[in-house]
Amino acid sequence: MKQVFILPGNSGKTGETVKEGKSFVFWGLDDEYRAVSVVGLGKKNPPQNELEIISEEKENIRKAAAAGCNALNSNDIKHIDVESFADAESSAEGAILSSWKFQEFKTKKDQLPQIQLYQPTDENSANFTRGTIKADSQNFARMLADTPANLLTPTIFASKIQEVLTPLGVDVKVYDQQWAEEQKMGSFLSVARGSVEPPKFLELTYKNSDDNPFVMVGKGVTFDAGGISLKPAANMDHMRADMGGAASVAGAIHGLAKLRAPVHLKVLIPLVENMPSGSATKPGDVVVARNGKTICVDNTDAEGRLILADALCYSADLKPKWVIDVATLTGAMVVALGNGATGVFSNSNALYDVLESAGAETGDRVWRFPLWKHYSKQISDNAAYDLNNIGKGKGGGSCTAAAFLREFVTENTDWMHLDIASVMGPDHSVPYLSKGMTGRPTRTLIEFVESQVRC
């Protein structure tokens, strides 16, 4: 017998409307469903606040679906039918994201609820499937980001990606240290020197178009102790998710492949551990990137930009339509944005506008920061070498990091840098995400790519 479904409506208590995001559970209303969760959706067509840069209607549906599922799950109901709420994709996203939690290494796992669509039609069934795929892809990114670092080394990460993505038609190439040395990726390799775990460099290809590829680059530091510039001990365990950029771009190509999007996408993931040891790069050391630029590494904890530098250089060989990199890059971004949005730097107004619209649709917003020469001077005005991996001025750490990366992007290439340190987690600020690493902004990346082939 079916157990439950969720729908919007009145609370049944003196006829008042259920408040937005709130739910009530009723039992024994009919023979088919032994329980019904009624949830509040808020206003049917809420006015769009241009300052919020979000589709509040879609976000309210996600929150409502999550509230209903959570209420039922807490009552030990594990088979849930969810109404479309007139937007089956958003309904599925809220339901699937809220019903998942990281428990990979518990000996006794909680049973996660099975979610399906209530009263499917051809149209809302297709949209519910889309939302399910996008949510599953974000959950894949969440799983990667929350996995302990000893169980997700660069080698294990590469194997996991092969296992999950190859059956979806994604070509997975795993390059080793010797290949990186032949490519003269001195900046990338300098970060790996302190760890016994060998570096890996992944090149993922999903090809469902003959066009030149879109290229995404994801920072893959599977654990970041800071190297010789050692991080404080407090919350250092969170640095298992310093590969959140790699996780989100892996999630994005996972979703796009399952959706059979008509695109040609390349994903590049440099993978390392950043550890202190006798062989580790020392503050003040100078290394040479793939494009020949010399870099003084004044802070070994500013390592993400070092591995991204060589990956961005390599991306030019692929003749991309555009390049974006995604990275948990700077604590300064957390100071600037809290966990409200991903920080973005771009040399293309048009490309950023597409991303901003995508974030408004998914509820996972972005906010733009400057790429001024003012910041470039702070990392390039040096007498003895081309670049420093940290800026000279006070503050603006996210801006100088972006300016550093810009030095490795080929001229006339449309490029965006997404600093996701602010949205990495672990937190519980999004109503439809349980506490832990968030997998953000996976759905925004999928929407961003898809929106460019709808035009």
From TrEMBL:
It comes from the Eukaryota. It catalyses: an S-substituted L-cysteinylglycine + H2O = an S-substituted L-cysteine + glycine; S-benzyl-L-cysteinylglycine + H2O = S-benzyl-L-cysteine + glycine; Release of N-terminal proline from a peptide; L-cysteinylglycine + H2O = L-cysteine + glycine. GO terms for biological process: proteolysis. GO terms for molecular function: manganese ion binding; metalloaminopeptidase activity. GO terms for cellular component: cytoplasm. Keywords: Aminopeptidase, Hydrolase, Protease. PROSITE patterns: CYTOSOL_AP. Residues 299-306 form the Cytosol aminopeptidase domain. InterPro entries: Leucine_aapep/pepB, Macro_dom-like, Peptidase_M17_C, Peptidase_M17_leu_NH2_pept, Peptidase_M17_N. It is an enzyme of class 3 (hydrolase). Its EC number is 3.4.11.1, 3.4.11.5, 3.4.13.23. Coiled coil: none annotated. PANTHER family: CYTOSOL AMINOPEPTIDASE (PTHR11963:SF23), LEUCINE AMINOPEPTIDASE-RELATED (PTHR11963). Belongs to the peptidase M17 family. Cytosolic metallopeptidase that catalyzes the removal of unsubstituted N-terminal hydrophobic amino acids from various peptides. The presence of Zn(2+) ions is essential for the peptidase activity, and the association with other cofactors can modulate the substrate spectificity of the enzyme. For instance, in the presence of Mn(2+), it displays a specific Cys-Gly hydrolyzing activity of Cys-Gly-S-conjugates. Involved in the metabolism of glutathione and in the degradation of glutathione S-conjugates, which may play a role in the control of the cell redox status. This is Cytosol aminopeptidase. It comes from Brassicogethes aeneus (Rape pollen beetle).
